[in-house]
Structure formats: C-alpha cells, structure tokens
C-alpha cells in the first residue's frame, strides 16, 4: 500500500456543506465557524458562493463572507457558477474560484438548467476571464460515478469534462461522488485512469458518506496517487448529526484516520474538535 507523508485537506463546510442545509445560518455564525476552522491550521477553506441568492438563499452573504475571509488573511475559495458570479467574485478580490459541471447530462440540466456542452462553453469564457485576473481555478466535476437520474456514469462522461478543464489549464479538478454511491474499487480504477490520461493534472477527491464508504474511498484514492481531499466539518451537507446523514465526509473523521496512519495534514485535532462542537450549534 502507498502512504504519502502528507495529504492536503480542503475544508468545504462553510460553502458546499451549508449550501445543502435547509436551515439558514446567519453570517455571524458562519464567520465564527470560519474563524474556528482557520485556527485548526487547514490551509484552504471554501467560504462563499456567488450564486444568485434566489437560487440558494443560504449563500446570499457571499460579499460579506468574501470580505471577512480577506480580512482574516485566508486562502479561500468561492464558487462562481456563471460569468456574472465570476465578475462579483473578482470585484470582491476572491483569490481562488471554483466552477462546476455535472458528468451526468440529466443532473446538469436539472441542477444548472444547461446542457453539459452549454456549461462547458460558459466555463471556457470564465477560465479566460479568471486567468486575466490570475486567479486560482478549481473545476468541480459532480456525479462522477453514478447519478440519481441516470444510474451508472461512465468513465468517458467524466473524461469529457476533465479534458475540457485540463485543456483550459485549471489548477485542480475535484472529482465528486456527489450522491455517495461509489465504492473503493471504482474509485481506485477511475482515478488510476484519470492520472494515466491526465498526468499533469492535480486531482482532488470529493466524497460523500451516504453509504459509510467515504473513508474507504479516500484510502482507495490515495492508492491511486491522490493527495488532496475535500472534507466538511461535522459532515455538513446533508443532514448533519442524524442517523443516515448523507453529507460530505466529515473533516474530523478524515483527519483522525490520516493522523493514525502517520500522514500529516497540518491540522490540529483539538482545534478541529472545537470547530466540530460549534457546528452542532449552527442550526439551533
Ligand atoms: Mg459535496
């Protein structure tokens, strides 16, 4: 087995996590959460989304969150789902942006109301604009293994989007098991193929714990050479702290497993426990 010395964890709780929670969390609480997360030593946090507030009311405070993240001196990511969102992110001096496209045509159309080809065309324009501003670009590919509408997703469906992102020089590509149905075998095989086809590309694993396999999937992805993972404090992004939670893999679980295996993350587990405890109060 392959055990690297170090793995980077990207904390996505304040954005990807909270975006999928139905209860609105105040800006003040979000900022406190980000402060607690920053104290853990995590290097990058996704703190905002410039999506239209009507589409996702939870993210209506993107401007305040971006300003706060800058004041904290954070290296942070903001989701920019379209050109308009990207312009707002630029106006707010966001250093790292993220775009997303679904590998499933049906999911993409239902979620973004565009075909995959339309999404990719808009991404091309966004990449050009983001590069003018010298921004770090993350590309999210969601539903990379299966989809609630289409069932199994083929490697070629994922490859099509990855190759578009790679051709336009994105800085990293986050491969999402968005509905948490993948298993270690498909994770290992798919990442091995991606690394073979795109040897220059930096891949990130973005796993959900729906079937309790997220940690096993992380271990499988590590075997395929992946050294960056998204994780969400408290498993935010589904139904946190309740049985059958379907959120993102919890940061505290990932960090604990990696540290037990002697893999460094630069994250302090005690501080992480404090952030996790605070997460439980977000919905009170
Ligand atoms: Mg997610």
What does this structure look like?
With 284 residues, the chain is an alpha/beta fold. The chain has one domain (8-279): TIM Barrel. Helices cover 43% and strands 17% of the residues. It contains eleven helices and ten strands. An eight-stranded parallel beta barrel has the order 1-2-3-4-5-8-9-10, surrounded by nine helices. The longest helix has 17 residues, at 116-132. Residues 239-245 have low confidence and may be disordered. Magnesium ion binds at residues 16, 206, 208, 237, 248. Residues 16, 206, 208, 237, 248 line the site of magnesium ion.
Strand order of the largest sheet: 1-2-3-4-5-8-9-10
Poorly predicted runs of 5 or more residues: 239-245
Please, how many helices? 11
Kindly state the percentage of residues in helix.
40-55%
CATH topology: TIM Barrel
Mean pLDDT comes to 94
Distance between the termini: 43 Å
Outline the biggest β-sheet: 8 strands, parallel, barrel
The structure class reads alpha/beta
Total count of strands:
10
The CATH superfamily is known as Aldolase class I
Bound molecules: magnesium ion
What is the class in the CATH system?
A: Alpha Beta
- CATH architectural category: Alpha-Beta Barrel
């Amino acid at each position: 087995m392959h055990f690297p010395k170090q793995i980077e964890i990207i904390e996505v709780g304040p954005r990807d996590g909270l975006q999928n929670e139905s209860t609105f969390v105040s800006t003040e609480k979000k900022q406190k959460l980000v402060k607690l997360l920053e104290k853990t030593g995590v290097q990058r946090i996704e703190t905002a989304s410039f999506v239209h507030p009507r589409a996702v009311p939870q993210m209506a405070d993107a401007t305040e969150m971006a300003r706060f993240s800058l004041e904290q001196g954070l290296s942070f990511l903001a989701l920019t789902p379209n050109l308009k969102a990207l312009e707002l992110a630029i106006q707010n001096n966001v250093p790292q942006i993220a775009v997303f496209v679904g590998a499933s045509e049906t999911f993409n159309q239902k979620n973004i109301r565009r075909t995959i080809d339309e999404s990719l065309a808009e991404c091309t324009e966004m990449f050009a604009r983001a590069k003018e501003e010298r921004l770090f670009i993350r590309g999210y590919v969601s539903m990379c293994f299966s989809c609630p509408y289409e069932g199994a997703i083929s490697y070629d469906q994922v490859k099509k989007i990855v190759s578009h992102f790679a051709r336009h020089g994105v800085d990293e590509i986050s491969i999402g098991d968005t509905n948490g149905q993948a298993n270690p075998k498909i994770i290992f095989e798919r990442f091995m193929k991606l690394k073979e086809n795109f040897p220059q590309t930096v891949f990130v694993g973005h796993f959900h714990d729906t079937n309790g396999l997220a940690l096993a999937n992380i271990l499988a992805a590590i075997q395929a050479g992946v050294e960056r993972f998204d994780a969400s404090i408290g498993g935010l992004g589904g139904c946190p702290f309740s049985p059958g939670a379907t959120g993102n893999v919890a940061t505290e679980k990932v960090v604990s497993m990696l540290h037990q295996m002697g893999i460094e993350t630069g994250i302090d587990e005690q501080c992480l426990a404090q952030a996790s405890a605070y997460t439980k109060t977000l919905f009170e």
